[in-house]
Amino acid sequence: MTTPASNPAWPAQWLRGVLDLAVLAVVARGETYGYRIGTDLAALGLGAVKGGTLYPLLARLEDAGDVVSTWREGESGPGRKWYSATPAGRARLSEEGARWRAFAHLTSDLVHEVPTAGGTR
Description:
By secondary structure, the chain is mainly alpha-helical. The chain has a single domain, classed as Arc Repressor Mutant, subunit A (Orthogonal Bundle). The chain has helices spanning 12-28, 34-43, 51-63, 87-112; strands at residues 32-33, 67-72, 80-85. Strands 1-3-2 form a three-stranded antiparallel beta sheet. The protein is elongated and about 65 Å long. The chain starts with 11 loop residues before the first helix and ends in a 9-residue tail after the last helix. 15% of the residues are buried.
């Protein structure tokens, strides 16, 4: 049996629908940087998120005022851009998270109720 982390074959449209919220949730856990956000998302089961998707998404979250970033020199390597959730980002996460949970519950119930080929549920 494969797990979502070892089988990142979630349909792209599902990920597009929730990726902003998932990234914001990871950043809201505590100050972090892009590479770590990507590895956290993979560890949580969403699969690999490429930098070409992740960094523009972080820029949009920053432009929207949901996250702020600071640049820090690296101790033993290159510098990194660190991200933190703003109060507005945390409010968005709370509001959209509640809406997402309701939507997921609704769709889960709907799909579960589909009759089988024999006509029973």
